[in-house]
Each structure stands twice: as C-alpha cells, then as structure tokens.
Write a structure and sequence with these properties.
It contains two helices and 20 strands. The chain has helices at about 1-25, 225-260; strands spanning about 35-45, 45-50, 65-70, 70-80, 85-90, 95-100, 100-105, 110-115, 120, 130, 135, 150, 155-160, 165-170, 175, 185-190, 190-195, 200-205, 215, 220. Helix 1 packs antiparallel against helix 2 (about 225-260). The longest helix has about 35 residues, at about 225-260.
C-alpha cells in the first residue's frame, strides 16, 4: 500500500516538471529565434518479486515474471530546432537564418556563443551587436556615415557612402552548424553554448555545406505552437490529477485497515 503512495508521488513530480517545460514554451511564444522544448521521461527501477523464466517446483519455467515498478522521473529536455515563422520587419539589420545554422556571438569572457536571434543593432563604434551588446563574430563594422546597408543571401554585408556610388564590403556573416544541436546548452539571452554532446562547431559561409541562407529584413519567430502547448498542458494537468487520485485512494485503503 505504501508503495502506491510513493509511485504516485513520482508521477505528480513528473507532471509538474512537464508543466514547467510547457509554461516556459508559452512564456517565450514571442521570443525571437526561440526553440520549444519537451520533457523526456523514463520508468524507474523495478522490484523483481519473481524472475521471468524462473524454475518452478514441478521443473517448468515461468513464462512471465513478477515485477513492480517504482514510478517515473524526468531525465532530459529536448529542444525542437524546427524553423520558426518568418516575420518581415524591413529593418536592414534584422537577419533571418533560413535553414540550419547559428550566428556566432563573441562573449565578454572570450568564449563563443551561438544564437538564432538575428535582431542586430550597431553600437556607438559601428560594430554589429546583439540586443545585449555582444559583438558578432567575426566582428563587422559599419561607419556612421553609411547610407544604405545590404546583406546578400550568402552573408556578404555591404554599405554605401554618400560620396561614393560603389558599395563597400564590411565583412561576411559566419554561420555554425552542429552534428547534434540538441546537445547545446541553453544559457538564456537567446544564446547557446557548445558542449561535449553537441559536437565540434562547423563554421562557414551561409549557403554552403547545408548551412542556411540569410534573409535581410526578416526575423525568425518562435516555433512554439500555442494550440499544441495548450493540449500538452491539459494532458499534464490530467496526469497530475490522476496521480493525486491514486494517493487519495491509497490513503482511503489505509484508513480502512486502521479501522479494522
């Protein structure tokens, strides 16, 4: 009887964790470049009361065993890197990655972070930076006197000066792909860090080696499907309620025993 209480408790914990993941997805429905996540669960240790195939007194073997599970637990969260919807902004420094790849972001401590958020701006030095002021890597600088900024699908950034009709090249955007992007570590601010699970970064120009292309004047929206998340929320709630009901039922059975 006590086993049922503890098993149901693990089910309630798993449902709560699932709801936490769903809530974070819904909270970021308007976050540029956000990738939705889902919880991954597994069953826990089984108590074996009779081994499958055990020999009986008459010499025959049992076709099945007698095992009782001890519940479930969350073991991982997996990011879904499906393409988000394109949002046209018309801004020259809004860049969408159409396909695979991440922007390379230079962090203040010297490490390289990766992002799908293409909402860039120029700082007071003319450097291309994120909304938090982190520079693009390699750095691209556009002077304050530039009148027009263009970005090709291959990532070549050019600008024009008032006294010169010829375009000036500021640099080329570099994209990075990973063999296992689900292994990247989310650190907030729309940034990811490389881990041993993600594999080594594969850097290169857009439109090469399966990397996506750059679309200027567009942003990639969150890939969260609100309807799907609401359905998942209802499922998580019902799972929590059913496990709560199991605890209530076990408690009532124990109460009957104490009244005997």
């Amino acid at each position: 009887m006590m086993r049922a209480l503890y098993v149901a408790k693990t089910g309630m914990d798993s449902s709560q964790f699932n709801l936490d993941v769903i809530s974070n997805n819904l909270a970021n429905v308007n976050t540029i470049g956000f990738k939705r996540a889902r919880g991954v669960f597994e069953d826990l240790y089984y108590q074996t009361l009779r081994q499958p195939g055990a020999q009986l007194a008459d010499g025959s073997a049992t076709p099945t065993g007698l095992q009782i599970g001890t519940g479930a637990a969350a073991v991982a969260t997996v990011k879904n890197f499906a393409q988000g919807n394109a949002q046209q902004t018309g801004q020259s420094l809004d860049w969408q990655i159409d396909g695979d790849g991440f922007f390379r972001i230079q962090m203040p401590d010297g490490t390289i972070a990766y992002s799908r958020d293409g909402e860039f701006r120029r700082n007071n030095n003319g450097d291309i930076v994120t909304s938090d002021g982190y520079q693009l890597n390699p750095n691209i600088n556009i002077p304050s006197t530039a009148t027009q900024i263009t970005v090709s699908t291959a990532g070549v950034v050019q600008y024009f000066l008032p006294s010169n009709p010829s375009p000036q090249t500021a640099g080329t955007i570099q994209l990075t792909t990973f063999i296992n992007p689900q292994g990247l570590q989310s650190v907030g601010n729309n940034l990811y860090l490389q881990t041993a699970a993600s594999g080594d970064p594969q850097d290169g120009d857009p439109n090469t080696d399966s990397r996506g292309q750059i679309k200027q004047g567009f942003l990639e929206g969150s890939n969260v499907n609100v309807t799907e998340e609401l359905i998942n929320m209802i499922t998580a709630q019902r799972s929590f309620e059913m496990n709560s009901k199991a605890i209530t039922t076990a408690d009532q059975m124990l109460q009957k025993l104490t009244q005997l």
